[in-house]
Design a protein that fits this description.
The chain is mainly α. It has a domain at 25-64. Helix content is 81%, strand content 0%. It is built from three helices and no strands. Helix 2 packs antiparallel against helix 3.
Length: 64
């Protein structure tokens, strides 16, 4: 247990993300992708206001 804690602290000090950080990032990316898909669907149905809202929310979550 102590070794794992030391490894985590070393990774944080080196600027590497922890597993929890990676999982949170993937979750955010997945949420953004889902919102983008909803935006695409709304756009194809010509629901432009709704598609704009979905795209905007996706960009807020993952601006890259």
């Amino acid at each position: 247990m102590m070794k794992r804690m030391e490894d985590l602290e070393a990774r944080e000090a080196a600027g590497e993300g922890t597993k929890d950080d990676d999982e949170e990032e993937e979750s955010t990316e997945a949420q953004a992708a889902a919102l983008k898909a909803k935006g695409n669907d709304a756009f194809s149905r010509r629901w432009f206001q709704a598609s704009n809202q979905y795209y905007s929310q996706a960009i807020e979550l993952d601006p890259t």
